[in-house]
Amino acid sequence: MAEELNIPHTGNKKETYEAILPQIEALIGGEKDLIANMANVSAVLKEAFHFLWVGFYLAKEDQLVLGPFQGPIACTRIQYGKGVCGTAWKQSEAIVVPDVDVFPGHIACSSRSRSEIVIPMITDNKVFAVLDIDSELLNRFDKEDLYYLKRICDLLG
Ligand code: SME
Fold first, then answer.
1. Of 51, 103, 113, 149, whose Cβ has the fewest other Cβ atoms within 10 Å?
2. How far, in Å, CA of 4 to CA of 47, rounded?
3. Which domains are present in the chain?
4. pLDDT digits (tens, 9 = 90+) for 136-153
5. Distance from Cα 26 to the centre of ligand 1, integer Å
6. With a 6 A CB cut-off, is 134 part of the ligand 1 pocket?
7. Model pTM score
C-alpha cells in the first residue's frame, strides 16, 4: 500500500477523479473488510476535494446508521425515506441537491452544508449503504461527480 496519495491540485475535477480512481483501487483491492475500505475512501475523497463532509451510512433494518466518515460530527441514524440519504435509499437512486435549503425534509447535520450528493450502494437489488457528501458551496455537484462517485461506489460494492 502506498503511504501517500498523489493528488493533482489543479482545480480540474476530472483530472483529480482520474488520478484517485486507480489509487482507490490499489488501496482497497487487497482488503475485504467493507468498513475499513469505506474509511479509506472517505479519507481519499476528503483529501482530494476538501469537502465539508464525506462518509457512509449503512442500512440496518429500517434505518441508516452512521459509518466511516471524515468531517464534523454527524447524525447517527436516519429513517428510511427521510432526508436526502433516506430518500436516495428509498428510491434506489442517486440524488444531487444543488441547494439543501430547498430540498424538502433535508436533515441538516451541519449548518455549513449548502449542497449535497448521495449515492446508494446496491448489491442483489438491495441498498446496503449510501455514500453522502456535503459541500459548503452551493451547486457543488454535477454529472461528472455523479459518474465518478458511482464508479468509486462500484469498487466498494
Ligand atoms: N443531510 C443528510 C444527513 C446526513 S449529513 O449530511 C452527514 C440528509 O438529509 O439525509
1. 103
2. 11
3. 13-156 (3.30.450.40)
4. 999 999 999 999 999 999
5. 29
6. yes
7. 0.97
